[in-house]
Amino acid sequence: MSKIIAVMANDVEDIEFTSPAKALTDAGNEVTLVGANANEKLVGKHGTEFTTEKGIDDINADDYDALLIPGGFSPDNLRADERFVELAKKFMLNDKAIFSICHGPQLLMQTGLVKGRTLTSYKTVQTDLYYAGGIVKDEPVVIDRHLITSRTPDDLDAFNKAIVNELQ
Fold this sequence. Notes:
Keywords: Glutamine amidotransferase. This protein has 168 residues and is an alpha/beta fold. 33% of the residues lie in helices and 24% in strands.
């Protein structure tokens, strides 16, 4: 069993959290929803309500095997908080598993560590990734070592399969 941190703020693309989290837990993994604060109510773009289990200051990245970054407007909100940037940076520097979909790579760009990495994202973020030095592919799933990225909810089946396989 692997332990995964899912980082989220308001306006997440609901299914980009619920679908991967279900796939991961169905495969026997543990997903912990982390926000700015523990027991915080968050609302997705489509009205789904979520409650964070832990706050960013309550976790130690070393205790987790993977980082899940769902899309929507959540990653843009998260990258304004240096604590989430530092968490993503730690996962990238330690070459730990990162699962990022849609606008999720916005948080990764903020680390300054996407240069030379191969990844994808929602189409409007792809140009930003390119200018940040990333090697951008317009494919349903892109795997660069332990960094797995995807574009949209339409790619969730392939994304979920890839992230579950990564942890097996």
